[in-house]
Write a structure and sequence with these properties.
Order of helices and strands: EHEHHEHHEHHEH
Binding site for ATP: 17-24
Helix content: 40-55%
Strand order of the largest sheet: 2-3-1-4-5
Keywords: ATP-binding, Kinase, Nucleotide biosynthesis, Nucleotide-binding, Transferase
Mean pLDDT: 93
Domain Thymidylate kinase-like: 15-203
Family: Belongs to the thymidylate kinase family.
Strand content: 5-15%
CATH class: Alpha Beta
InterPro entries: P-loop_NTPase, Thymidylate_kin-like_dom, Thymidylate_kin_CS, Thymidylate_kinase
């Protein structure tokens, strides 16, 4: 196959934010936006995305799961390695766009910021598992804790992370914002306390810029 015939590598987009930030609300918009522009895209999530990953998700989110801090981080990366090898890399190599609801930034936020696992341990796992793979665009849906908590209140049974105290979620939010500040070329920080139309207008702008870079 000549260089002209080679498949152009796909784009990798991740959605991040504390629980209650509204990521799920905007996935359908992103799906429609890409489809309307004939972009071949796959959608996935973490924890999860593969049969093994979904089993790990059940363990990590179940309110009655008892797990050490290090084991929690290791489980997240075990699922991630399977996700990368089985779903993410094949999609990108085939030229598809891959949109994931959460990726490694969540581990830095929840296990690193929230739980207190040293960031250098997470970084070592990241380097081992990802081998340089990073998202092309990370949409960080940011909002105050009290707004996020209000959105989740009474909507459903909360999972193990959603049940954590406010200081846990504040540390997670702070970790997210520190990572965004350190990698402004990758992150787009969106004020998720605004109306849906305003947020999605911003999402469209960032997707358009990524599309134009193809």
């Amino acid at each position: 196959m000549s260089s002209a015939q080679q498949v152009r590598r796909g784009r990798f987009i991740t959605l991040e934010g504390i629980d209650g930030a509204g990521k799920s609300t905007h996935l359908a918009f992103i799906r429609d936006w890409l489809a309307n522009r004939d972009v071949d895209a796959a959608f996935t999530r973490e924890p999860g995305g593969t049969p093994l990953g979904e089993k790990i998700r059940e363990l990590l989110l179940a309110p009655d799961t008892v797990v050490s801090l290090d084991a929690e981080a290791l489980l997240a990366f075990a699922g991630r390695q399977q996700h990368i090898s089985e779903v993410i890399e094949p999609a990108l190599a085939a030229g598809r766009w891959l949109v994931s609801d959460r990726f490694t930034d969540s581990t830095y936020a929840f296990q690193g910021g929230g739980r207190g696992v040293p960031f250098e341990r997470i970084r070592a796992l990241e380097e081992w598992v990802q081998r340089g793979l990073q998202p092309d665009l990370t949409l960080l849906f940011d909002l105050p804790l009290e707004v996020a908590a209000g959105r989740m209140s009474g909507t459903r049974q909360l999972d193990r992370f959603e049940q954590e105290a406010a200081d846990f979620h504040q540390r997670a939010r702070d970790a997210y914002l520190r990572r965004a500040a350190a990698e402004p070329q990758r992150f787009a920080v969106l004020d998720a306390s605004r109306g849906i139309d305003e947020i999605q207008a911003d999402i469209a702008t960032h997707l358009r810029h990524l599309l134009e870079r193809r």
